[in-house]
Amino acid sequence: MTRSRAFGFLLARGRGRLFLFRSLDLLPFQGLFYTHGQLVAQSSKHYSGFSRELDPWKCCFTPSYLGVIKGQKASVMVNFSVPHHRPFSSASTSTKRNPYFSTVSLDDVRHFVDILGHKSVIQDEDRLLAANIDWMRKFKGSSQLLLLPKNTEEVSKILQYCNTRCLAVVPQGGNTGLVGGSVPVYDEVIINLSSMDKNISFDKVNGILICEAGCILENLNSFLANEGYIMPLDLGAKGSCQIGGNVSTNAGGLHFIRYGSLHGNILGLEVILADGTILDMLTTLRKDNTGYDLKHIFIGSEGTLGIITKVAVLTPCKPSSTNVAFLACNDYLSCQKLLAEAKRDLGEAISAFEFMDCSSVEMALTHIEGVRNPLPTSLYNFYVLVETAGTDESYDRTKLEALLVRSMEMGLISDGVIAQDLNQASSFWQIREGVSEATGKAGAVYKYDLSLPVEMLYGVVEEIRMRLGNAAKVLGFGHLGDGNLHLNILSANYDSKILAQIEPFVYEWTAQHRGSISAEHGLGLMKAEKIHYSKSAKNVNLMVSIKKLMDPKGILNPYKVLPQSLLQN
Amino acid sequence: MTRSRAFGFLLARGRGRLFLFRSLDLLPFQGLFYTHGQLVAQSSKHYSGFSRELDPWKCCFTPSYLGVIKGQKASVMVNFSVPHHRPFSSASTSTKRNPYFSTVSLDDVRHFVDILGHKSVIQDEDRLLAANIDWMRKFKGSSQLLLLPKNTEEVSKILQYCNTRCLAVVPQGGNTGLVGGSVPVYDEVIINLSSMDKNISFDKVNGILICEAGCILENLNSFLANEGYIMPLDLGAKGSCQIGGNVSTNAGGLHFIRYGSLHGNILGLEVILADGTILDMLTTLRKDNTGYDLKHIFIGSEGTLGIITKVAVLTPCKPSSTNVAFLACNDYLSCQKLLAEAKRDLGEAISAFEFMDCSSVEMALTHIEGVRNPLPTSLYNFYVLVETAGTDESYDRTKLEALLVRSMEMGLISDGVIAQDLNQASSFWQIREGVSEATGKAGAVYKYDLSLPVEMLYGVVEEIRMRLGNAAKVLGFGHLGDGNLHLNILSANYDSKILAQIEPFVYEWTAQHRGSISAEHGLGLMKAEKIHYSKSAKNVNLMVSIKKLMDPKGILNPYKVLPQSLLQN
């Protein structure tokens, strides 16, 4: 096996897919393969075909070893220039290091070696660098210590020691977060859960899986597929993200409309508190009303209240048939009405309801190779992709066809087509998934991930479009079924004048309409100081009280989620 | 309108339904009509036919006014002897009044009159008595003050004052709880939410309802039915229970297998904290990852952390077809396998999966008038009731038939029948619902509501049966799809020797198998001191810390949920 000698990032595109990985000496490759967002990792393929398109990162590289990545240990020799940092629209407020925290000493390192053994205490510069940088390359910490605990007891001992010594820590899973929540800000000790990746048990009658927090989502899904079940969440980052991170960030994803929030699907957790206490809430019961249901405090708290080490999750049965329709609407109101009709007609079978405006579709058609509009005529104002997942192919298809006929009669849709096979279904999804990728090819992009009541969701797109006029191209698309808008604003170059036209307007508009400035990405470091746009001072004060109660020294993932001014008072 | 002059309880049975209501001077009747458990209120009917069956409460009564109850103000003249108290199997540990709490003074009453007006400050003995007693007549407080706030601000002012004055309070909704959580233990001020019963808004596209906490579940369901939606929970107590109480107690109910926990269905809450702070978490967003999701702390905390005043709930589309099958299995393992098959074959259409052992069915057949076994041959060891709710009558039926054929071929079921119409479906349900009612007719009954992993759920029934031999009849039935067992033990008379054979064995057995001693009823006063059977000391300690943080004076629903020894330290 070739060992990597150079460190860096490799980004490769192929057929509408985007890959980003980091090569690190000796670590199993599987845990080091990073993808995100709508982008799906085809990690079982090799990479020879992907060197041709490296913009917009403008790096060059020479892979000297192309191994099969998935499920095997492998490494890769990569030489390339460091890519330019991309400017982002929501930079974090500069935060000072909390002087209360200790710095890691040689004695500390020796103590961690005693707990974990030499191999799990990492001080190698290359490996530390990878763990210090988020996958968007927006945030970079300066941690000098990466710990790889192998079990619950080791995590407990680490935290017990760190709490006593006042050493700040950052819990890390697949490091696929978008808001800088999973990398250090300063010199926090990184506790990476990748080595805790065992499936503990699976109850075939009830579909209840218990596993360690470091299990990769895609691996869990592959395991469950053999048992006739699926995970209740599906993300673009599934090839790298870990279930512990999914739960810590309350990940949403593509099946949210069908299976709902993790608050409804997670049955139990094992969590290590700041002082090392092992909190066993790892029940597999569907009903348990004995006292406060504490696990919910940890779901979505982004590692600031405890480190999740084990997860019990209720998994749905695997649907045996999938159908996809691609529909055109003349106005946004029709999209809304179509959503109501689809929910009514398709009932529980609906598994996705995505929408794109004309500009979004045009962007995908223009910039993504192989993407074609399945509707024959010129562009409509809006497009909707409806997916059903059920247990009977022909019945499900008939229902979807009936929805189309009815919607056409009601004047809700102007045109529409149902995929004839899996290839066509995949080509419909390419349009939707291609939008995000296409924006990266068109120049500078300002990205926002908002939750808004569905009836006013498109209003912010129209208002921003009016504010910016010809200065930028404004796209609106996203998970309409969940009220989740992806607002993308494109211009030739990054321009502070354009940014000033967008922010804080977009946050204020969202706040005025009782929306959320972070639908599914969390707050992390990037938006910790912006929480007041979506939560009242009373809400935030109670969060701060809970944080202080559960982590009095503030060692768990500091500088994240909550405003520092409130925490350090 | 006739005014009631006498106070008391009226219990009436008719066609497998049980009614319990309290008549109180001048209050709107709708808010005073109590039912519970599997028993459904037919509150739009009058009561003339129900006097014929009054055992086992052995009270007599003479209704002098029979009004239409539902949706109208009405009252009733009732004269009857006080029914005997029934002994219960899980009596509360005797708890001393916390001497730290003040007692209500005349000045306090004047202050509440200033806030609420005379009509909402109740000191009338009869009305106080009704509010002091739980519907099971197991718990009785001695509160001298019942407050009926009409809006959020009034609740806030009440709590602000009570917190300053150190006056303990008990939040009360429909008072249909089974564990003494909704009545005072001593002289706590009762804050009843019945006057806060407005629907605030309904979003037809997304099925999101916002309403006040005092809305009665059945009324919400009736409202939604007209809009093509249903509430995601359904309870026997729906005619009286209020949505605020449902959320506070994390009510489960009959549709749990289909729509899951309230943690997944409640989108937002407005809650008043102990010091009167109005905590606005009343979002209608499906996705919102901005900070800790605080609403979950209040769901299931039984009014000990705050008083819920408004609720935003995601409501499912109303299914247009329902099918019910009644099946016989030879052993418990077959019931489990049938559950797995049903979940796989019926997919998302499954809406109930109930099981009964032979003794349970025999009990219903023997004691409930009109209940018949739809299967022609003699009794089998186990029975399963499967219900589907979907959007296509013939298709849904075909799928259920296919499940039957396949299960028969696999040897999982010995016999089975699908209801041919709604009447037959209702008669199948009568068997299941009749079990609970029948136990009341057979003598003394010890009732337990346990959650257990499905594979060992019936084990406790078999062990108890062995322990008791001929001394008692042991029934096992319940929501198999949710792992929720109703264990009922019947003997001729209440007997401390039998109880000693059951407790603490049943709790210990449940604890050993990582079950829950309260699947859906909560802990309330009855099981506050038993929490350690289902939660570890570390869990309980964290709950206590959170209680002390959020309600430092402990005024909110004292003596409930958590052990007093830990709270008063």
TrEMBL record, chains A, B:
Cofactor dependency: FAD
InterPro entries given in the database record: FAD-bd_oxidored_4_C, FAD-bd_PCMH, FAD-bd_PCMH-like_sf, FAD-bd_PCMH_sub1, FAD-bd_PCMH_sub2, FAD-linked_Oxase-like_C, FAD-oxidored/transferase_4, Oxid_FAD_bind_N
Domain FAD-binding PCMH-type per the UniProt entry, residue ranges: 139-318
Record keywords: FAD, Flavoprotein, Oxidoreductase
SUPFAM superfamilies: FAD-binding/transporter-associated domain-like, FAD-linked oxidases, C-terminal domain
Family designation: Belongs to the FAD-binding oxidoreductase/transferase type 4 family.
PANTHER family registered for this protein in UniProt: D-2-HYDROXYGLUTARATE DEHYDROGENASE, MITOCHONDRIAL
Protein name, as recorded: FAD-binding PCMH-type domain-containing protein
